[in-house]
Design a protein that fits this description.
alpha+beta; rod-shaped; four-stranded mixed beta sheet; 8 helices; 304 residues; 54% helix
């Protein structure tokens, strides 16, 4: 008979051909595989990749074939952290059969995937409860190393080698994820408020400095305006007194004050944002207005 192990099918030759070959069977083991040969139900030897012959009349037969390629197993484990947060850990285990110990892998374990999964559960549920949720995210490499060390210690005796162990995902409960997002959003809002407050503070300071500078310049302008008005009034009084005989400085000042009074009333009337003013106005009150203005100026001069 002819046995093709890698292709997973068996072809039996004719009886005449078997008699010519001395009642031998030959078979092929493909690359990245290892065959298990038994004799009368007992392990005989390992069959490396290539062509092999068996004598069925001596009880020799191919019991099975194991792949030596790297295999992976995803294990999802639920546990809780030190701060009582339930999380799911997704562990990815990469393992392979050790070629020299393939007989142990074939005979010792009936289901190696379930065995690996059980040890992952045991290590994860012993390590994660010692960490808070933040520490778990920061130290997930340590959890993966603990799982890998434990699996290597156990699975090596069964003919398996653990190539790599990865914690590919940490999934907290949905309510915890929402709370974490809200905390993060609140922290960012707080920082934004601090930056906004600092910006408003700078803006207020600059605005106050600008207002102070504007008021100072306005005061300088008003002082210069009043100085110019005083100089103009002085020149007007002197010119009018010299040009018109019999007039005194008091008469000229009264006339100037009355003129400014009427100019002020005209400007108030022409203003787009005029306000109603109730002032005594009439022929008899003009003199009183001039007298009040003059008295006010004299009192201001006496005060200074």
């Amino acid at each position: 008979c002819v046995v093709f192990v890698g292709a997973d099918f068996v072809v039996f030759l004719s009886a005449g051909l078997i008699s010519k070959m001395g009642f031998l069977c030959w078979y092929c083991v493909d690359q990245a595989s290892i065959g298990i040969v038994e004799e009368w139900g007992r392990f005989l030897r390992l069959a490396e990749p290539g062509l092999h012959f068996l004598n069925p009349f001596f009880g020799q037969w191919l019991a099975g074939v194991l792949s030596t390629r790297i295999q992976y197993l995803d294990v999802r484990c639920e546990t809780k952290t030190k701060d009582n947060v339930f999380v799911q850990l997704l562990c990815s285990i990469q393992y392979r059969v050790v070629r020299e110990n393939a007989d142990d892998a074939f005979y010792e374990l009936q289901n190696p995937r379930e065995q690996i999964q059980a040890y992952v559960f045991d290590v994860v549920r012993a390590s994660v409860p010692k960490m808070s949720l933040d520490e778990l995210f920061e130290q997930k490499a340590e959890v993966a190393k603990a799982v890998c060390d434990e699996l290597e210690k156990v699975m090596t005796a069964y003919g398996y080698n653990i190539e790599q162990t990865l914690i590919v995902d940490i999934i907290p409960d949905a309510s915890v994820r929402r709370a974490m997002n809200e905390i993060n959003a609140a922290e960012r809002m707080r920082m934004a408020s601090v930056y906004k407050g600092d910006a408003e503070k700078v803006l207020q300071v600059k605005r106050a400095e600008a207002e102070a500078e504007a008021k100072y310049l306005a005061g300088v302008g008003v002082a210069r305006q009043r100085q110019a008005i005083t100089d103009g009034l002085r020149d007007s009084v002197l010119t009018f007194s010299h040009g018109v005989e019999g007039t005194s400085a008091k008469d000229v000042m009264d006339m100037v004050m009355i003129t400014q009074y009427f100019d002020t009333m005209r400007d108030i009337g022409n203003s787009s944002k005029n306000t109603t003013l109730f002032l005594p106005h009439g022929p008899g009150h003009v003199r009183d207005v001039a007298e009040d203005i003059r008295n006010g100026l004299l009192q201001a001069a006496d005060f200074h």
